[in-house]
Amino acid sequence: MKRIILSGGFSMGALLLAFAVSGDFRVPEDEFRGWNHVKSMVIFDKRHPLYDPFWGIHHVYVNDRGLRTIKKEGRRKFPDGTVVAIVFYKHRSVDGNTAYVEGAKRLVAFMVKDSSKYRETNGWGYYAYDSKGKSLVKDMARDCHSCHSQVRERDFVFSVWTR
Q: CA nearest 112: which of 28, 20, 8?
């Protein structure tokens, strides 16, 4: 059995998670920041339907394997080996409430495409960790895929390439 290892050094602790897949894969802390930046988003308004738990500033990255597909408009199908990383930050004002920058990291999430391993969730594995490295996903189908099913035609990935 081969293992995927996602590791990250958060300021409040370290994360090391291993799970079986059909190949080796390692993402050290913030290596994904060198991947392809897909988009950034800011959610400050509590009335937004994604506010809880996705408030603050977040950035979306995709590895090279999924880059061509995420750039497609309309229907798309990601190849196995695609990994999407989403990093969520608190925000802080730099000038008294008109300009904001990233604050502390709140959580990091990954979508991992492996059609044979994640059959129950249409080929996607979902992983998310808080700033202390605690896993936030207990049931991939219920906790993540149920919402991602809204974008079935985009292979369950909400993000689209920012032009």
A: 20
Q: What are 118-157's pLDDT values in tens digits?
A: 999 999 999 988 888 888 899 999 999 999 999 999 999 9
Classify the C-alpha dihedral 47-51-56-57 as positive or negative: negative
Global pTM value? 0.80
**By CB neighbour count within 10 A (0-12 exposed, 13-18 middle, 19+ buried), where does 139 fall?**
exposed
- Please report the domains of the chain, with CATH numbers, ordered by start residue: 34-154 (3.50.70.20)
CA 62, distance to chain mean position in Å, is 9
Q: What is the pLDDT of residues 8-42, one digit of tens each?
A: 332 222 222 333 233 333 455 677 888 999 999 99
Distance CA 134, CA 10 (A): 11
